[in-house]
Amino acid sequence: MDSSPIERYKPQVKICGLTSPAAAAACADLGAEAIGCVFFPKSPRHLTEQQAKEICSALPTEIKKVGVFVNETCSYIMRKVERCGLTDVQLHGRESPELVQEILNENIPVIKALFAAGVPPLSDAQKYRASAFLVECGRGVLPGGNAVTWDWQLARKVSKTYPVILAGGLSPDNVSQAIAACRPAAVDVSSGVEKAPGIKDLTKVKAFFEAVSGCSFEKHSTRIF
């Protein structure tokens, strides 16, 4: 993560919930700086180690491969990192600041999820030394956005101080509105560019990138990926 002078800045894009190497490679070709591999058995996008390894192997070196975990141990997470070729870790449950630090001590960047209507709340940002924060609503049945739109402006409280990835209910139709409300360093989308859970619709993915490309604003830009 590096800082640069104030300039016109376009948010980076992470596509999450990939389930095939071909789709992951296509998303990278369209402009994704990062892809997300979900390791949560209750999710329809859950991957085996072999599936995740194949997806990560299909991607260029410069694309960040983010493993998404919910309330797992450091040893479990690091095992997936090593076996699958992950470069970053996203903690999407009620993980402690101590776990974040444990993983950082392994020289792996850590994204910690915070929730406008869940735990940990947005106000807990100061408790963590995360590389970045993924901010979303947290009202759904499963961890993750659950395709629920919310008041993205609430995330602005965090993005003024910390590197923020905005998530939750984003789609090609509303991402520009969400970016204007939050001014995040990056955006994260999963179900908003799918035709079925875990199956990305590349037409929607392309439209999402086109919408993000039309957004820029002045800020002290911090690259997360």
The helix content, as a percent range, equals 25-40%
CATH superfamily: Aldolase class I
Enumerate the strands of the largest sheet in spatial order, edge to edge or round the barrel.
2-3-4-5-6-7-8-9
CATH topology, what is it called?
TIM Barrel
At the first level of CATH, the class is Alpha Beta
Distance between the termini: 7 Å
Query: What is the count of β-strands?
Result: 12
The geometry reads as globular
Runs in which pLDDT lies below 50 for 5 or more consecutive residues are none
The number of domains: 1
Radius of gyration using CA atoms only: 16 Å
Q: What's the mean pLDDT score?
A: 91
Order of helices and strands: EEHEHEHEHEEHEHEEEHE
Structural class determined from secondary elements = alpha/beta
Quick one: biggest sheet?
Answer: 8 strands, parallel, barrel
- The tally of helices reads 7
CATH architecture: Alpha-Beta Barrel
In terms of DSSP E residues, the strand content is: 15-25%
